[in-house]
Amino acid sequence: MDLLTSHIMRTRVIWDNGEVRIWRSSGRGVACLATGQAEDSQALVAFLQSHSGLLSGSRLTLLLDHPLLDHRLERIPQMSKKLQRQLLEQREQKAYGKEARNWSALALHPDEAGAQDLRLVASFPSGLNSPIAEWALRAGIYLEGVYSLPAALAASLPAQVSPNGAILPITVGDITYLVAQNANGALLFFVRAGNCVEEPSLLERSSGRLALFVEQEFGMSPELQEAPSKEVVPSGLFTLPAKSMLNLSALRERRRQAALRFRVRAFSVLVVLLLLSFLQIQPSLAQKQELASKRLSLLPEIRSERMELEKAKDALKEERILRQIIAFCRNRSVEKLEDPVPSPLPVLVAGIGDALPSNLELDRIECTIDTESESLRLLLRGRPLTPDLDLSNQLERFRESLDNQGWLIESSAINFVQESSENSRFTRRGAQRFFEMDVAIRPRPVNTQTL
What we know:
Strand content: 25-35%
CATH topology of the largest domain: Nucleotidyltransferase, domain 5
Shape: rod-shaped
Distance between the termini: 92 Å
CATH class of the largest domain: Alpha Beta
Structural class: alpha+beta
Radius of gyration: 51 Å
Low-confidence stretches: 1-7, 426-432
Order of helices and strands: EEEHHEEHEEHEHEEEHEHHHEEHEHE
Number of helices: 11
Number of strands: 16
Largest sheet: 5 strands, mixed
């Protein structure tokens, strides 16, 4: 039994010639939950509908015995299962004509060896079977199948070894069935004897007919072993495998029930997966909420630290500017007041040279001071020291160095010059990496309170 349905209760409904009983197996044994009368399939459906509360959530198996339920023995040649089934289908149509019937065959294995296989065949009208399957599908109840009650009772009996074979009685409620077995306990056939407790003569007549039939078919004379007793349904009906019983459900109904069972299994798997996902996600959600709470509590401290960091950056920038001013003044200092003051251009050129990245070299530099706007215009021409250098990145670093020295860049233009047409890839690549840069800068305003 699979893990998804092993917990579902197993229920057996026995429909025995108009009398209906609902049986259920539990850890404490087998119990009869309800009884009633149903002369036809519609009455049976109404009875099951009135007790749907007992059947919901269980795996339902219907075991029936009906005046229109026929059993017979068929001997067929040994061939493929497909051909054997086709032969049995032809014999079924020949026996019942155009009447729609569901049939099922079970292989019997007596001791006799021959060129033919022995089959026990059960046949039942489809019109009596279909309403039950339709109701189960509408009600969402998983119907495992509709099986022959006499064949199931016969299969549930333990094998009894005897020299000439045996006829064993088994009683369900008030009705006794007789089952014939060969010397090794293999099933041969069975009959319905009736209420042998109230009418003991039925037992003798039924056992005589069954013994005569077995003698004609198998050449042995089994004897009645024990007297029947009134007892509850055998617990063997709940443990009997489906392959040991005759299933009278149509193939179409079995497929629909299989689809229903698949949906139930899929729903169960989905519920389990959702539950596992929730259990797995719940700690993560709690951890996420805890982290969010900590983040909110740290926000004021983060803002304060960020403000302190901005203040420190501004102070460092002003300090760099002041250092440039001090260095500029020191380079233009004189010993005597009457001495001429050195030109500021060499000082400015030296500062610009310090800002230039070490991977670049200048071929020409022109500086022009505009005293009215207090700005300095630089015309630079240079090249990288290595051919594979990222020149754009180096020039950007040069601009950042000027900014760090306290210069405010008003405008900047860069032009890459090509002066060679040679075919050498190295020469051509190096020639294209000459640059010309036109920059206008001016001193950045300084907070005079810090001087």
